[in-house]
Amino acid sequence: MRRRPCSQIIGCLLFICLGGLVARTADVSSPPVKPVPLKEYLEYARKSADYYWDNYDAVITRWREGFDADYVFGYRPPGGLLEMSVIYATLYEKEGIKEYADRAKQVLLTYGNFREMYPEYAIRRRVDYAEGIPVLPDFFTVMRYIRAYDILNGMDVFSPEEKKDIEDTIAFSMRYLLRTQEWGPMNRTALRAESLAWAVRAVDNHPDKPTWEMLRKSLGDDNWGNWEIEDATIYHGVWLYALCGYSYALDQMEALFKTPEMYYYAHYFLNLMSPDGMIPDFGDAHWQANWQHYLVYFETAAALYRDPHLKWAASVIARKFVDFDNPISTGLGYILLDCSLWGDDAVSPAEPESGSMEVMEDVQGKKIVFRSGWKTDSTYMLLNYRDEGDGGLNFRDYLRDTIPVEEEKMTHGHADENSIALLMAGGSVLLHDGGYRDYMPSGPVGAFRQDYFHNRLCVRPDKIFFGQKEGEYRYSVRDAVPGQNLLDFLYNAGSYRIIRTQKVDFLSFDDFDYSRTRLIDDKMGYLWDRVITYIKDPGIFVVFDIFKATKEDYFTLANLWHTRTIKARGEHWYDTVYDRIRNQELKTDTHLLIHFPQTHFKEEGVLPEKRHYQDEWLIHQTTAQHFELGETQGFITVLIPHPADESPEKQIGRIHLLPVGPDGKGMGVRVENGDGEILVGVKNDLRMDMIRDWRRPRYTFDAGRMDYGDFTTNGDFLFAEVNAEGGRYTCVNMTKILYRDTVLHAAKEALFGLAFDASPDTGGIGKLRYWRDTFSLKKGNAK
Fold it and tell me: How far apart are CA 303 and CA 36, in angstroms?
């Protein structure tokens, strides 16, 4: 008995086809999570098809009542029918019950009749309907019609006349499908390739078949064994599922999963899994959207790789989202049918044990996850610094040249580089991404793709007009002078600016994690480094945002944080939480305290905004000035998750600025912790050490020397825990570190030769990658 594949849905269509499914409440942290037996997936598919069949007349009546002849994508037949036909065709193949074949056959033979609803005036408006209305107009579902036919074909189900009628429908729909030319490693191309693969497989003799095969190969080859050019949660899932269906139609699924790229993506998405039981939404995406495609992908990957962690991801998603007691969606049933076909009961789930990590590296994935564990109440932060990148240039350029997507990072990406897409702790959502779009191509001011919809630093040329508060001295009067609204100053059409990003560093230890990632805007003329320190005890994040001007100009810098509710606020702090995302109420047992400890010449404010289709609040800290070449400016934000019943003031009293010198060259924070304190310090300009080029090394200790409280070092980053008896420290990229003028560690001198000025070989000191050690203060001096 042959095994066969399937395909996908998306955006608004996803919610329609899946019957508006919402998440079920489930405890996904109770170890071990129970896998879903494959027969349970199959039974959901069967029952959903039966439900649709039993309610066929009512479904069609609702479709007719809601039919929109002016829909932007043209004619759309009723949803769910093709999915039902594939389910019944598969059940007939498995069980031989003729009633199943009859039901699937009826759909295939009558599907074109619904076109009578589409009026003549609407046909005349569409040049792509010049040859007639296609029976299969939606490239997200074309393959489902063909797949059902392929299963039944050759099983004595159709008469010769019926076969010809169906194959003519397929051929005409293929001609329509190929009117739109889209190619490259992305979801829409993979969908078209899957449909073509099914057409080549299902139709034995047709004059267009060589053309289908040529185009199948041209589109499929761009996706097979290549990196996807999209960076969006919804469309990643569509692309992966389409590739699974494509390889299934070719009987090459095992070969697909042997490609390095598919192995990479399996672990990429596994390691993005959040405490919510799903991959966070980033790029064009919605909260919890498209879990169905990740479910079937994880089931398939777990089976082919024999990987218990991938099986765990599939089991978590299924147990959280699928209501097996209410099998009414054929859209979901269709996907669960593939889970039953491609999964494997022999693979048992096992919860991953890894901690914070890069996901997966700094070329393709460009994401960093900070996590305390894999439970529903674990702390989790996703930093996304993915830029458009250098790959897929021909494909990206073609998209820019053919569709109105100037707000997108090609393709389906946002101006979200260096943004925090999700922060969760204690089961509560504390920071969240901005959403997809209000309408096509984007909503007002680029909603929700532009930089000001994300948790990140926004930079604009020119200087915002601050105005002044009553009694201030910015102007010759002591009266209040209204300033510019920050959002009005930042807003524009939302057009995406091409920038570059790099990882500077990432380290993970038992006491803290540290990342430094960089955004480079060559045209505007600046660098922005985001430095994140996750202090595991007491479980807080210190975020340094460092701007460096690469040209002399005026700049406005806005440090933006978004939230749904502000529960309390005080001097330079805001206690926040997400109580809902759209219509879904969220757990609020944990709040997020957002604190700005560095305040000189920085304006703060709270502004209302529309974000992720709901009313939210923007909390900002902003400065503006003229910058000299190479001048830096920085922001410090301390993010403190804490129990909702705990006073924010209690937390604020623990956070202090750390004295750092030379002035303006670095930043630091001191955190009271038990009977001691934690120090975090960062150098603003990592090139300040470089003072000579005639010999190596180019740096000297004195040129890079920084004082962080009682510590002195030329390191890029310092983390230390100190109490009355001593402490421990980690210093990154350093030659020497001192505490109260006592050397804690110094790298040894080595021989450096081949000087460019032809001087003799001489001694020099190489920088240590990092140095971790302890020291004692029991006698009053560091040792």
Answer: 13
Q: Which two tokens stand for residue 462?
A: 């020119």
Q: Is 333 exposed, middle or buried (0-12, 13-18, 19+ CB in 10 A)?
A: buried
Does the CA dihedral 728-733-734-735 come out positive or negative? positive
How far, CA to CA in Å, does 712 sit from each of 660, 716, 722? 10, 11, 14
Collapse the DSSP code of 168 into the 3-class scheme (helix H, G, I; strand E, B; otherwise coil) and give the result: helix
Both tokens assigned to 625: 């000035």
Q: Contact, 607 vs 593, CB < 8 A? A: no
pLDDT at 217 over 90: yes
CB atoms within 10 A of CB 673: 16
Residue for token digits 């095992």?
254
Give the model's pLDDT for residue 31: 64
Does an H or E element contain 419, and which?
Answer: strand 419-425
Residue type, 572: H
- DSSP symbols for 228-257: -S---HHHHHHHHHHHHHHHHHTT-HHHHH
Number of H helices, E strands in the chain: 20, 32
The amino acid sitting at 732 is: V
Whole-angstrom distance, CA of residue 405 vs CA of residue 403: 6
Are the C-beta atoms of 430 and 423 separated by less than 8 Å? yes
Token digits for 116?
């009578």
Q: What is the pTM of this model?
A: 0.94
Single-letter code of the amino acid located at 385: Y
Q: How many CA atoms lie within 13 A of 119 on its CB side?
A: 9
User: Sign of dihedral through CA atoms 372, 375, 379, 381?
Assistant: positive
- CB contact burial 389-424 (16+ within 10 A = b; e otherwise): beebeebbebbeeeeebebbbbbbbbbbbbbbbbbb
Contact 223, 236 (CB under 8 A): no
Q: Are 311 and 347 in contact (CB under 8 A)?
A: yes
Which conformational region is residue 184 in: left (phi greater than 0), alpha (psi within -120 to 50 degrees), or beta?
left
Q: How far apart are the C-alpha atoms of 641 and 543, rounded to whole Å? A: 14
For tokens 């310090």, what's the residue? 681
pLDDT tens, position by position, 58-105: 999 999 999 999 999 999 999 999 999 999 999 999 999 999 999 999
Q: Average per-residue pLDDT in the chain? A: 95
Residue 616 CA to residue 258 CA, distance in Å, equals 45
Burial tier of 507 (Cβ tally within 10 Å: 0-12, 13-18, 19+): middle
pLDDT tens readout for residues 534-550? 999 999 999 999 999 99
Determine how many CB atoms are found less than 10 A away from the CB of residue 588.
18
| Burial of residue 488, with CB atoms counted within 10 A of its CB: 0-12 exposed, 13-18 middle, 19 or more buried | exposed
Helix (H, G, I), strand (E, B) or coil at 173: helix
Tokens at residue 661, please? 């010198």
Using one digit for the tens of pLDDT, what is the confidence trace for 581-607?
Answer: 999 999 999 999 999 999 999 999 999
Question: In angstroms, rounded to a whole number, what is the distance separating the alpha carbons of residues 636 and 354?
Answer: 29
Percent of the residues in the chain that have a pLDDT greater than 90, as a whole number: 94
**Distance between alpha carbon 574 and the CA centroid of its chain, in Å?**
26
* Contact between 501 and 517 (Cβ < 8 Å): yes
- DSSP-derived 3-state class of residue 549: strand
